[in-house]
Every structure is written in C-alpha cells, then in structure tokens.
Specification:
Radius of gyration of chain A: 19 Å
Shape of chain B: globular
Strand content of chain B: under 5%
Radius of gyration of chain B: 21 Å
CATH class of chain A: Mainly Alpha
Number of strands of chain B: 4
CATH topology of chain A: ABC transporter involved in vitamin B12 uptake, BtuC
Strand order of the largest sheet of chain A: 1-2
Number of domains of chain A: 1
CATH architecture of chain A: Orthogonal Bundle
Strand content of chain A: under 5%
Structural class of chain B: mainly alpha
Oligomer: heterodimer
Distance between the termini of chain B: 15 Å
Number of strands of chain A: 2
Strand order of the largest sheet of chain B: 1-4
Number of helices of chain A: 11
Structural class of chain A: mainly alpha
Largest interface: A-B, 43 and 44 residues
Number of helices of chain B: 16
Order of helices and strands of chain A: HHHHEEHHHHHHH
Chain lengths: 288, 338
C-alpha cells in the first residue's frame, strides 16, 4: 500500500512537470528552438499573476484570464522581435539569446521584487483531499493540476490534427522550407507558436506557484525538470511529455520516500539512467 | 623556384608577443608595486580568463556548448578541501590531484551527455552539475549543505605569513591563466587544433574529410574538465570556504563566462581576453547598482549574437586583418614578386 501511494502521488506530481514541459516541447517541435529562458518565463508568469492579484484582489486562477493573453503577447513579441533572427545561424544564437533572456528575467525580477520567496494563495482547494480505501489520501489540488495537464495535451492534439493552424504547424515542423514554398508565413507562424507555448507556460507558472514557493532564482530548476520530462518522454512526442513527467514524478516520490533530501536527486538520476539506456526517450517522434 | 610561402606569424603577432611579454613581466612584479586590492582583482581576472578560454575551446571550437562547467569548478574545490582537510594531503599535491580526479569523473559524464546534441547537450551538462551539487550536499564528509573550510594550518603550509601567501596565490593565478592560454594556443597549432578548427567551421564537412569528430570532442571535453577543476581548486583556495551553492554556481562560473566569450568573440583565441575585460569593467563601474551589470552583460551578449556573431575580436580581426595568436596559416608572396 505504501508503494501504491508513492506511485500515485508521484504520478500526480508528474502532472505539473508535464505542464512545465509542454511549452518547451512545442517550441522544440515546431521551430527546433530550445528555450533556455523557459523556466524563468514560468516564474515570470507567477510574478505577473501575483501583481495582478494584488492589484485586483482576484484569486490566482481567475488571474489567468489576464495572465494568459499577456504571456501570449510576450511570446509572440519575443519570437517576432528577437528569436526569429536566431533561427538561421546554427546552434549558438538561439541558445545564447535565450540564455541572455533568462539572465535578464532572473535579475530583473531580483531588482524589482527582491530575493524574497512568495506563494500564491488559492484558498481551501490547496489542502482539500479525497480519502480512498487502504488509507490512500489524494489531494484535490494535485488531481486538478493533473486534469489540467490532460486537458492541455488533449486540446493541443485537437489543435494539431483538426485545425488549419495545426496543419501548418506540422508542415513547418516537417520541412520549414517546403512549407514556406506552399505559402506558409513561417515567421508569423513561429511567433504564434511561441505565443501558444506561453499560454501553457502561464498556466503552469500559476498552478505551480499555488503549491510551491517561488523566488527570482526559481526558474532554472523548472527548466531542468521540463527538459527532463521532454527527454524521458521522447523529443517531439506530446503525450510522451506526460509520461516523462510522470516517470520523473514517480522517481522523485520514491527518492523522497527514502529521504526528503533525495527527492530532486532521484529525479535527475532517473533521467540520466534513461538517457544512457534509451537516449531517444520512451516515445521518440522528431529527430533533431 | 618558390614563389609563395606559408607563414604563421605576422608582424602584428610578433609585436604583440613582445608587448604581451612586457605586460606579463609587469604583472609578475605587481606584488612589489601594487597593493593587495590590485592583486585580488588581477587574480580574479586571471582565473576568469582561464575559465573563459576553456569554455571557448569547448564551445567555440569543439561545438560542445556546455552550461555545466561549474560542475568541474566545484569538483576541483571540493577535491582540494577534502584531501587537505580530511586526509592531510599537501595543499599543492591536492590542487594538482583535482585535475586527474575531474578527468576520471568526466569520462562517465561524457558517456551520458554525449548522447545529447546541441542545445540538449547544454541542458544535459547542467543537469550533471546539479547532480554534483546535490551529491556534495548529501555526502557528510563534504560538510553537507554548509560545505567545508580550509583551516589556518593548511594555509600556513603555503606560507606562514599572510603577505607572502597573498603573493604566492596571486602568482599561481597568473601562472594558471598563462598555462591555459598556452595550452589553448599550442593545441590549436597542433594537428588536433586543425581538426578542432575544422569542426568549428563545419562539423559534417570535417567528418567527411576524415576528422574523427567524436574522438576530438571527447578529448577536448576531458582536457577542459581537468583544467577547469584545477582553476576551481585555485579559486576556492583563495576563497577559503566552499559550499555546494558557491562551488556549483552556474551564474558565477558559467553564465558570466559564456557572456565574456560571446562578447569578446567566440571561436577566437583573443576573444575571451577582450570579453573578460568588458565584464570586469562593467562590473566595477556598476558595482553600486546590484545585479544590473548582469542584465547589461546579457543584453550586450544578445545584441552581439544577433548583430556581430563573431564578437568584438572577430569584428576587429576581420576589419583590420590581424591575428595576435597566429594559429592559422596564411600564404605570403616572396619578396621579388611584390
């Protein structure tokens, strides 16, 4: 029973990691961009929600109504204004430009908000839980987050396979040059893609900040977790990121069951083992 | 009759060599004409220069964009502190042992991270350094989360009196920077350097021409890991304390180093020096304004990457056709043809 409990809690923890990973996976899948600032954008979303919450008195989840369009606009602008210029020049430019953005966001937040830790307050739902037979307690909030992750992946599935925009995304992902010949405006499409990635980043940022303390330096570890989920699941595989997140969550739950200090390390070790044993991940889709 | 000849050195490089030797001599003599503050600043510049040159070899030439070199900086520090503290090894021996230790550890690490390419390699190296940091904080003999300190006894091994010790540490920093520059220079002039330069310019093309790209990258990864650990040992020998947070800090040992190399000119041997100067000047100018210098460095690096990807030195060298460290070859017409 103890192990079943660890397994369930770990899987649910995987929901938030999958949400972290969706934005990263999208921008890699569509424009082969590895966004090093991804974790910092997650944290930035949390700060934006905090400021809006303080200004309007709204609870964090309601704030999403404002945070999501704001982050979409930021993603669109970032890609249009900055990142599109990096796509033709090989490996270094996108990596270093997003690295620079990451440092600017981190230190900008540090200058504006200081190094204090914050947390968003959502109220009773944070501590509510469901009792199951065998003494298994499942928190309502982790369950909700997991449900949001499923919903997010499902809506992306619909977007990709049922809409014209999704067809254009798939075309550009397969062969950007040919897609352009067929009349796709790649630059605009990439901007929309990062905008959509940022929608999920914003949701992930707010949902994580309700559960976990955050500070300006909280981004990098979020990037690493997202990255591990993407690699474990297999590059470019949407549902793979959910499995990747769950594997990571379960590994961490097992580590935490041994000793709380082992939680994060156990996740990293699981990642490295999978990397060595099965380098293309569990469900590989795209090749880079 | 020979009409053209291949030459490496140029007039600029020979004049520069002379200036560099004079400048170096002046720096070696600094303990006799500067104060302790100058020595600290120059020592810091020296180890940043060494770290920047090592990262440049790795990313600029071998195409291995690691953001996890702090793993080896921290490792070097921890090896030094553990060996001197727990096992009473002589401090110089311990410092030197950091290199083979890092070399050995970098082999299994490379097996994991070499499976990733490009940007994923970058984040993979970062994960490894996180693992190192977490491991250091979990191992009781390494002091856990609070880390280790060097005892006064160990420091007295270097020199009993403080002024002498400062001087020795300063000269060691200077020597390390010179040695790393020399290694980079000699490596790039060797046949491995030719392979490296080819990989820098085009990895598929160099592979198709018979360069063993995997082996070359593997060797560079291990050599830079060893040298980085040595520099790390030296850095923490001067700081006297190490903790997982300080030892494996990505901001201190990798982020600023990457910005230096990019701003100065990645893939050139001179670039890291220019970038290091830009960093130190910015930091000293903006010392009173918190972390704005980092924001500014990041912004400059972005602009450089987008507008002049070969950096300050790349631009200068292209514009005026000068190379201070002649690692390439050029054709020169013999005199009677001119």
């Amino acid at each position: 029973m103890e192990w079943l409990n660890t397994f369930i809690q770990g899987s649910l923890l995987g929901g938030i990691y999958a949400l972290f990973a969706i934005g990263l996976s999208l921008s890699f899948g569509i424009m082969r961009l590895v966004n090093i600032a991804h974790g910092d954008l997650i944290v930035l979303s949390a700060y934006v929600a905090m400021v809006i919450g303080q200004g309007t008195g709204l609870d964090p989840i309601s704030c999403l109504v404002i945070v999501v369009p704001l982050m979409f606009a930021l993603g669109y602008a970032l890609q249009r204004g900055l990142l599109n210029q990096t796509l033709s020049g090989g490996l270094l430019p996108p990596l270093l430009v997003t690295f620079g953005i990451s440092i600017i966001i981190q230190n900008g937040l540090l200058q504006v908000f200081g190094a204090y830790t914050h947390r968003l307050q959502e109220g009773a739902i944070e501590t509510a839980s469901l009792q199951f037979p065998g003494g298994i307690l499942i928190g309502v909030y982790p369950l909700v987050v997991f449900g949001v992750a499923l919903l997010a992946l499902g809506s992306l599935q619909l977007l990709f396979y049922r809409t014209g925009l999704g067809r254009a995304f798939r075309a550009v992902s397969d062969d950007a040059d040919t897609a352009e010949l067929m009349g796709v405006d790649n630059r605009k499409l990439y901007a929309v893609a990062l905008g959509i990635a940022m929608i999920f980043t914003a949701i992930a940022g707010v949902l994580f900040a309700i559960r976990t303390n955050f500070d300006p330096a909280a981004g990098p570890i979020r990037l690493i977790l997202a990255f591990e989920a993407v690699i474990i699941g297999g590059l470019g595989s949407m549902w793979g990121t959910l499995i990747g997140g769950m594997v990571l969550g379960i590994a961490q739950a097992v580590g935490a069951a041994v000793s709380p200090t082992w939680q994060i390390l156990a996740g990293h070790i699981a990642f490295l083992i999978i990397l060595i044993v099965r380098p293309s991940g569990l469900f590989p889709r795209t090749r880079d | 009759m020979e009409t053209v000849r291949v030459e490496r050195g140029t007039r600029a490089s020979r004049i520069f060599a002379l200036v560099a030797v004079i400048a170096l001599a002046a720096l070696v003599a600094l303990p006799w004409w500067g104060d302790a503050g100058d020595m600290r600043l120059i020592a810091e510049m020296a180890y940043y220069l060494a770290l920047a040159q090592l990262w440049n070899l790795l990313a600029g030439y071998a195409g291995l964009v690691s953001v996890g070199q702090q793993a080896y900086v921290g490792l070097g520090g921890y090896v030094l502190f553990y060996l001197t503290g727990a096992l009473s090894v002589n401090v110089y021996v311990a410092l030197l042992l950091a290199a083979p230790f890092a070399g050995l550890l970098s082999i299994p690490v490379s097996i994991a991270v070499f499976r990733l390419r490009g940007a994923y390699f970058a984040v993979g190296t970062w994960v490894v350094s996180e693992v190192f940091a977490l491991a250091a904080s979990l191992i009781p003999v390494l002091g856990g989360g609070s880390g280790l300190s060097l005892t006064p006894d160990i420091m007295r091994e270097i020199a009993p009196d403080r002024a002498d010790r400062d001087m020795i540490l300063y000269l060691m920093s200077l020597a390390t920077a010179v040695v790393v520059f020399a290694i980079a220079y000699l490596l790039l002039r060797s046949r491995h350097g030719l392979a490296l330069t080819a990989i820098r310019d085009s990895e598929p093309a160099s592979a198709s021409l018979g360069v063993n790209t995997f082996r070359t990258k593997f060797i560079i990864y291990i050599v830079t890991a060893m040298c980085t650990a040595l520099v790390g040992g030296l850095i923490f020998l001067q700081k006297l304390r190490i903790s997982p947070e300080a030892g494996f800090s990505i901001n201190d040992w990798t982020v600023v180093v990457i910005f230096m190399v990019v701003i100065g000119g990645i893939g050139t041997i001179e670039g890291p020096f220019i970038g290091m100067l830009v960093f130190i000047v910015l930091r000293e100018l903006l010392a009173d304004y918190g972390s704005y210098y980092l924001i500014l460095m990041g912004a400059i690096a972005i602009v450089v990457m987008l507008r002049a990807p070969s950096g300050i030195w790349g631009w200068v060298s292209n514009r005026f056709n000068i190379q201070l460290f002649p690692v390439g070859r050029r054709l020169a017409l013999v005199d009677w043809l001119r």
